[in-house]
Each structure stands twice: as structure tokens, then as C-alpha cells.
From TrEMBL:
Coiled coil: none annotated. Belongs to the group II decarboxylase family. This is Pyridoxal phosphate-dependent decarboxylase family protein. Its cofactor is pyridoxal 5'-phosphate.
Length: 472
């Protein structure tokens, strides 16, 4: 054994304690750190690979000196970009133990990890109001969950047409139509990856002033579609957190033949709150469902779950024929259910946080974040510098600056505003109905009303600063 590696092994408890202290220091300082640090004047030059290592403690020291100051405080309470959760204390503990036990939980030959994942997906199915007909598997994120769901849909199309794309290729299907009102960008990416093509995605008109699909327009589009189709419904769009009427969409199956995939990446968490659960009424009617766990479940990246009613088609797509992996069997190993042969025990962090805080604890996070989003929306609405572009339906505030009709100048001012406020609050840019805008998404377990006030003050100050610069 290399002498440095042997030395680290010999003092492993001390090294783990050093990492614990470093982690505690970083988490304790989240509130005081810039949410997104300013970029350095010049990017650091890459260091050469060491010929001889100096050990784990030296690596920790180098990381804290060279890279930690450049990392965002995305685990903290005012990182409102994308839709990013943090890691609850229990999820953090579970993730550390995931690395400690280092399971590739894909095979019944070493089945403890598989059983833990199945228990966890059962808890999640119950949490989101899905029935026993849905089976779930962990994947790396919403993009992979959507891709997996659409891969199963592709095989369902083949079943309807008497072919198997898994065996014969996507070309065996002929032209495919995937209908959706306001699909996430990952849907087109998945169609490209699956050989169906981005052009297979057919936009369907949405309700006036909404991002929710118009069920009557969807009915007409399905009537015009030759043969079976795929419908992608949305339970929480990224800009305005709009929800398709899932019951109305599912009811169209009485007249049309289609696979219903619902992208509920973060909107599924509305089911946790009695005040908002109506938004996902009908989710159980979906043939496949995407939910992203490193959003509102507040487990570390990368973690999502994919549910489907047709695990038989799922194994037809993803089965892996190798003697050392074992047969499919009546209850297929996880290796036969996702694109990944290597599959870390992502479920452990989710198991920990669900076991630690239960339905009640996670409902409180959801409802507190929704209250924070509404409070920020109200603060910005009262300020003449800002204009909301949509009602705050759940956990996202979509806003822009007033008094700037030119889109290019508005984009420049919003960029300057983001950069000026980034030390206190991080938001992400978007465009809604042709208007450049910013999005503040609340999904972190730490966020409180005090953070809302601090974020609003930072945005107001940055808006005033950019207005002065714009008139200079």
C-alpha cells in the first residue's frame, strides 16, 4: 500500500473529525457568506497533478484555501435560483453514510440497498398520493426521470403498433407526436436522446394568460393525431408554477389513445399541504411521473425518483443481459430499471430525512416556503420599481423591472441587478411571454420570513443602483 494512503488509513478517525469540523464551519457560516461570491479578477490557473500526494489533510487544507471561497452558499436560505433545496440535517447524515457504505445498490446478489430503496420509494409514493399500481426507482435528477418515463412511453407506443423500439430501434415506430402545453426544456432533450427527435414535440395552446394546457385544445390535437400519442402534462411549470388540470387531461383517454407522462419535478410536493393538494388532483392517473428530490425534499444533489404503472415495459427497455447480474425475475433488480448500471445508494439520504421528519415535517417546509414566496411577491408588488408577471401560485416569484420597454436594455438591467444583489440573494434569469424577467424559487428548508425581508431589501437596493446607472 502506498505509504501516504496507509498513513491516512491509520489515522482515519482524526481525518474524519477534521472533515466534520470543516463541514460544521462551512454550514455555520452560511448566513454570513456571499450567496454567490463575485468572480475573481482572473480565473485561477489549473495546478498540475501531484506526482506524490501529501495526504487527505493536506488536500482538505488546499480545498478550503483554493476552492471553498469560490463556492456558492447554495445550501443556504437565500439561494433562490433554479429550484434548489438544501440538505436537511438528516439528509446530510444519510448522504455521508451513503459514501461510508459505498453501495452499488443494483443487484439482489447484495440486496440490502435494493430493499432500502424499495421501502423509500414506497414512502414517496404515499407522500405524493400515488397508488400501489405505481412502482418507483431512483435516478440522478428530473432530466433522467423524464427521459426514463419517456423511454417507457416509447416502448408503449411500440406495443400499440406491434413493434419494439428497444429491439428494433425508434425508427420502427415511424413518426411520433408528443403533445404538451408548456414543457420543460428537458423534455426536448429526452426526445433527442431517445431517437424520437426534438421535432416530435408538438406545442398545444395553453389557457389564456396561463402556462396550463387548454384541455379542449389538447382534445383537438389528439383527434388530429394519427395513431397512439404521448402527452406530457405539467404539475408546476418553471416560470409560473402553473398546473395542468390532470383530471381533465386523463379524462381524454376515454376518447383517445395516449400515454400520460406528468412532469411534477417540484410541483408534486403540493400534495403534502392540504391547502395546495388540489393542484395535483389526478396525478395518480399518470402512466409515468417525474419528481425531483434534490428540490423540495431537500436531499443533496443528485437525486430524483421516477414512477410508472408499467414496470414490465420499463424492464423491456433497460434490462441488462449479463450473467453476473442475474435474471430479471418477478421483481427485477434495479439494474434492469434505469439507464444506470452503477447506482449509488441515493435512497439513503431520502430515507433518513423521511424517517427523521415524516410527512408533518416536510409539509411544514413546503408551507413555510410557499408563505415566504408570497411574502416576497407582496413586497415586490408594493415597490414601483418591480412588476410581477404572474400570480405567486406556489413557491416561485416571477418579476421584472418597470419602466424599461426595450427588451435588450431590460435584460442588461436585470443582469446588473442580479449581479449587484448576488451577495445577499441569488435569482435566475428567464423570459416569460417575451418579457425578460427574474425568478426567485423557494424550496430550502432553512428559509424564513427574515430571509424574505433581507432578499427584498437587496433587490430594492440593486434596482435603485441599476436605475441610477441606466440614467447616467
Amino acid at each position: 500500500m502506498d505509504h501516504t494512503l496507509a498513513a491516512d488509513l491509520g489515522r482515519l478517525p482524526e481525518l474524519l473529525e477534521a472533515v466534520r469540523r470543516a463541514a460544521a464551519d462551512s454550514l455555520d457560516g452560511l448566513d454570513a457568506r456571499p450567496v454567490v461570491p463575485p468572480p475573481p479578477a482572473q480565473p485561477p490557473r489549473p495546478e498540475p497533478l501531484p506526482e506524490d500526494g501529501a495526504g487527505a489533510e493536506a488536500a482538505l487544507t488546499a480545498f478550503r484555501r483554493r476552492w471553498e471561497p469560490r463556492l456558492s452558499a447554495s445550501a443556504g436560505s437565500r439561494y433562490l435560483g433554479f429550484v434548489t433545496g438544501g440538505a436537511t440535517p438528516a439528509a446530510l447524515a444519510g448522504d455521508w453514510l451513503t459514501a461510508v457504505h459505498d453501495q452499488n445498490s443494483n443487484s439482489a446478489l447484495d440486496g440490502g440497498g435494493q430493499d432500502l430503496e424499495r421501502e423509500t420509494t414506497g414512502w414517496l409514493r404515499d407522500l405524493f398520493g400515488l397508488g400501489p399500481a405505481h412502482s418507483g426507482t431512483f435516478v440522478s435528477g428530473a432530466t433522467m426521470s423524464n427521459t426514463t418515463g419517456l423511454a417507457i412511453a416509447r416502448e408503449w407506443l411500440g406495443e400499440r403498433l406491434g413493434v419494439s423500439p428497444a429491439e428494433d430501434g425508434a425508427a420502427a415506430l415511424g413518426p411520433v407526436r408528443v403533445l404538451s402545453g408548456a414543457p420543460h426544456s428537458s423534455i426536448a432533450k429526452a426526445l433527442s436522446l431517445l431517437g424520437l427527435g426534438r421535432s416530435a414535440l408538438v406545442p398545444v395552446p395553453t389557457l389564456p394568460g396561463r402556462e396550463a394546457v387548454d384541455p379542449a385544445a389538447l382534445d383537438r390535437a389528439l383527434a388530429d393525431t394519427p395513431g397512439p400519442a404521448v402527452v406530457v402534462a405539467n404539475a408546476g411549470t418553471v416560470n409560473t408554477v402553473d398546473f395542468d388540470d390532470l383530471r381533465a387531461v386523463a379524462a381524454l383517454k376515454e376518447r383517445h389513445d395516449f400515454w400520460l407522462h406528468t412532469d411534477a419535478a417540484f410541483g408534486a410536493f403540493a400534495a403534502l399541504s392540504p391547502h395546495h393538494a388540489h393542484l395535483v388532483d389526478g396525478l395518480d392517473a399518470s402512466d409515468s411521473v417525474c419528481v425531483d428530490l434534490h428540490k423540495w425534499l431537500n436531499v443533496p444533489y443528485d437525486s430524483a425518483v421516477q414512477f410508472t404503472r408499467r414496470p414490465d415495459l420499463q424492464t423491456r427497455v433497460f434490462r441488462n443481459a449479463a450473467a453476473y447480474l442475474g435474471p430479471l425475475g418477478a421483481d427485477p433488480d434495479l439494474v434492469h430499471l434505469t439507464p444506470e448500471n452503477s447506482h449509488r445508494l441515493r435512497a439513503l439520504a431520502a430515507w433518513f430525512t423521511l424517517r427523521a421528519y415524516g410527512r408533518t415535517g416536510h409539509r411544514e417546509i413546503v408551507e413555510r416556503d410557499v408563505a415566504c414566496a408570497r411574502a416576497l411577491g407582496a413586497e415586490l408588488e408594493r415597490d414601483p420599481a418591480f412588476r410581477l408577471l404572474a400570480p405567486v401560485r406556489l413557491n416561485v416569484v416571477l418579476f421584472t423591472l418597470t419602466g424599461e420597454p426595450d427588451p435588450d436594455r431590460l435584460t442588461a438591467r436585470l443582469t446588473a441587478l442580479r449581479e449587484a444583489a448576488a451577495g445577499e440573494v441569488f435569482t435566475t434569469p428567464t423570459v416569460h411571454a417575451g418579457t425578460p424577467a427574474l425568478r426567485a424559487a423557494f424550496s430550502n428548508w432553512r428559509t424564513t420570513q427574515a430571509d424574505v425581508h433581507r432578499a427584498a431589501e437587496a433587490l430594492r437596493g440593486a434596482a435603485a443602483q441599476t436605475a441610477v446607472k441606466g440614467t447616467a
